[in-house]
Amino acid sequence: MSQTDPIAELLTRIRNAMHARYNQVEVPHSRMREAICRTLAAEGFLGGVEVAGEVPKKKLVVGLRYSGEREPVIRGIERVSRPSLRRYGGANSMPRVAHGMGVQVVTTPLGVMTDREARRKKVGGEILLRVW
How far apart are CA 111 and CA 50, in angstroms? Predict the structure, then answer.
């Protein structure tokens, strides 16, 4: 089955697994998905990311994080730039998420990073997703 938007499919799997209170979720591997998950794990939204399997059937095992009351750490996650409508932001014009409580994941010429890192490095790029 072909996918038109693999990043949106990743976000939907994470959203559904958190709603069902799973501890981890498996998604097909790609370098972009791995970079996004590692960025979210570094920001504290995900528990961890592991690559499992061999080359034809590689997958990512994404650990999900919950609070002490078993509430998901991720309150909301949404795709910003889509294949049909790309969204870009410059280093100075990138909007903040939830008054600084959330992050945007941006793909730049220097790699996948958060909006804070992109502002600090003075580089813009495509805004992939928003998490709060």
Answer: 19
Query: Per the confidence metrics, is the pTM higher than 0.85?
Result: yes
Q: What do you get for the CA distance between the two ends of the chain, in Å? A: 31
pLDDT, tens digit, 9 for 90 and up, residues 52-94: 999 889 999 999 999 999 999 999 999 999 999 999 999 998 8
Q: In the chain, what are the domain boundaries?
A: 6-64, 77-131
Residue 114 belongs to what H/E stretch? strand 111-114
Q: Is it true that domain 77-131 has CATH number 3.40.50.300?
A: no
Residue 43 burial (C-beta neighbours within 10 Å; 0-12, 13-18, 19+)? middle
| 3-state secondary structure at position 119 | helix
Range 6-64: architecture per CATH: 2-Layer Sandwich (3.30)
